[in-house]
Write a structure and sequence with these properties.
Helix content is 28%, strand content 24%. By secondary structure, the protein is of the alpha/beta class. Helix 4 crosses helix 5.
Length: 519
């Protein structure tokens, strides 16, 4: 085997819970603001966060939810998000984080699949939460800031002063959902050790200090925002300013007001920061580093951001199944267009996907990763787990990459069928299944098309059933009832047939080739 080991010093992974690890960055600054709500400016000190985490863990234990229960969070970024996440973790439970843009059927599926017994949300999502929870095992819906019904304050109890007993190596602390390399979203089983390992690995490379400030618009429900911002930043004693959703003008204003030093972004935001005239209307001189992830960023855009901000612009690579980071760029060794080098304790291989031969430096092949951040597997799906993970612990990423002689990794293409819309995964099979539930659709195929703003957008090819009437408006209304907005096709093309192999697999390469030939 040809391994590409990391080029960083080894680090020690503490045998603790992720919340015990987080507390390291909170206990020494009890009176200092740890997290600030960007729109309102309301701050939560580190001491208040510790107290709320422990009181929530105590209250949920008194109610019988913890230890052992699964609690779902359906909420935007806000100071109480880490309180709920870590209150459940501190009490020995499991969290499943839900995308607030999901429709009721999507939420219902995740609640059932994860086995959630409680759902925590906010007033804006309370109605859809109640609708989604009707056919699930959810016993209580807790609404943060509710004026009536069960509120977060109502479930606070006597503080649980010590971490509930857990085995960090085996206890599943969070179930974010990912499509992996194919298929509908699956629960990714991440242990305390997975998260502690990735926070430790990232801290060793990132160079974060307690003086750092970040504007947290990357959603905490997504593994990127969850690990890099909510956990890494707070664990390092740095400060977060939350945004419930991305808005460029507010983002720039918060950078100026709070003197943000680090920006964590995705490629569509990178494009706006490189080109939008609003940037010139704000003082951005406090920024020292801009870190892009979730999808590859072009070298030219990366250079343009660096020049405009007078700051470092770097990239990293990760997957939900990797907790998520396997590669990061070190501040003093930047190669634009690269995702950097493997973080400590991480091994890489570049493998020929046809015959599984290891390939030499500079040769394109599938990226395989092994390390303590690799997931335990997919919940309730041993088949998908076996397809993604080898018996000796290698995770097959489904991404085509090269690694040069110095260990720098460059993503080149994608083996997996996923479409990346503004950094979010869209599984073609999930969209196709939703389309085919319409009686006028005989068959459907979905592929991604390059888009300057979103990175990619879904395009649907539709075979209409005999004697049926169907158009784009009908299908748009249909999928709007069952799919989040970013999963919905931006264009519908009506065709006589969908190309398939002898085994019935959709030949997406043929569809993409036809799309590229379209004037």
């Amino acid at each position: 085997m040809t391994f590409y080991p990391n080029r960083h010093d080894a680090v020690a992974i503490d045998a603790v819970s992720i919340t015990q690890k987080l507390m390291e960055g909170l206990v020494g600054r009890r009176d200092a603001p740890a997290i600030i709500d960007g729109p309102s400016g309301q701050a939560m000190s580190a001491g208040q966060m510790i107290d709320r985490i422990q009181r929530l863990a105590g209250g949920l234990t008194e109610r019988g939810v913890l230890p052992g229960g699964t609690v779902a969070i359906l909420a935007p970024n806000m100071p109480d998000y880490p309180v709920v996440f870590h209150g459940v973790a501190w009490g020995g439970g499991t969290v499943t984080t839900i995308n607030p843009s999901y429709t009721a059927p999507e939420i219902t599926y995740q609640l059932n699949d994860a086995g959630a017994v409680m759902l925590v949300t906010v007033p804006a999502f309370a109605e859809i939460a109640r609708k989604a929870a009707e056919a699930t095992g959810v016993r209580d819906i807790v609404v943060i800031g509710a004026q009536a019904g069960l509120s977060l304050e109502d479930v606070m109890g006597q503080p649980l002063l010590e971490q509930a007993p857990i085995d960090p190596d085996t206890h599943i602390v969070v179930l974010p959902y990912s499509s992996g390399t194919t298929g509908r979203p699956k629960g990714v089983m991440l242990t305390h050790r997975n998260l502690v390992a990735n926070v430790t690995q990232s801290a060793a490379v990132s160079g974060l200090t307690p003086q750092d400030v970040a504007i947290a618009f990357l959603p905490f429900f997504h593994i990127y925002g969850m690990t890099v911002l909510m956990n890494l930043f707070l664990q390092q004693g740095a400060q977060l300013v939350t945004m419930p959703r991305f808005d460029l003008e507010l983002f720039l204003r918060l950078i100026e007001t709070h003197r943000a030093t680090r920006l964590y972004i995705v490629p569509p935001v990178a494009l706006a920061l490189a080109k939008h005239p609003l940037v010139d209307q704000h003082d951005i001189g406090s920024v020292v580093e801009i870190f892009s992830g979730a999808a590859p960023l072009g070298a030219e855009t990366e250079k343009a951001i660096a020049a405009r901000f007078g700051a470092r612009a770097v990239q990293g690579y990760g997957m939900t199944e990797l907790s998520p980071i396997s590669h990061m760029t070190v501040a003093d060794d930047i190669r634009h267009g690269s995702s950097g080098q493997a973080v400590p304790l991480t091994e890489c291989r570049i493998v020929d996907p046809t015959d599984l031969r290891d390939l030499p430096p500079g040769t394109e092949g599938e990226l395989w990763i092994r390390g303590p951040q690799v997931m335990k597997g997919y919940l309730n799906n041993p088949g998908a787990t076996a397809e993604t993970m080898t018996q000796d612990g290698w995770l097959r990423t489904g991404d085509l990459a090269i690694i040069d002689e110095d260990g720098f990794m460059f993503i080149r293409d994608r083996l997996k069928e996923l479409i990346k819309v503004k950094g979010f995964q869209v599984a073609p099979a999930e969209v196709e299944a939703a389309l085919c539930t319409h009686p006028a659709v005989a068959d459907a195929a979905v592929i991604g098309r390059a888009d300057e703003e979103a990175g990619e957008v879904p395009i649907a090819f539709i075979v209409v059933a005999p004697d049926a009437a169907c158009d784009a408006d009908i299908l748009h209304a249909h999928v709007s009832a069952c799919l989040a907005s970013y999963k919905r096709p931006s264009e519908y093309r009506f065709v006589a047939s969908v190309p398939k192999s002898a085994s019935g697999k959709i030949l997406r390469r043929e569809l993409r080739a036809g799309l590229s030939r379209t004037p």
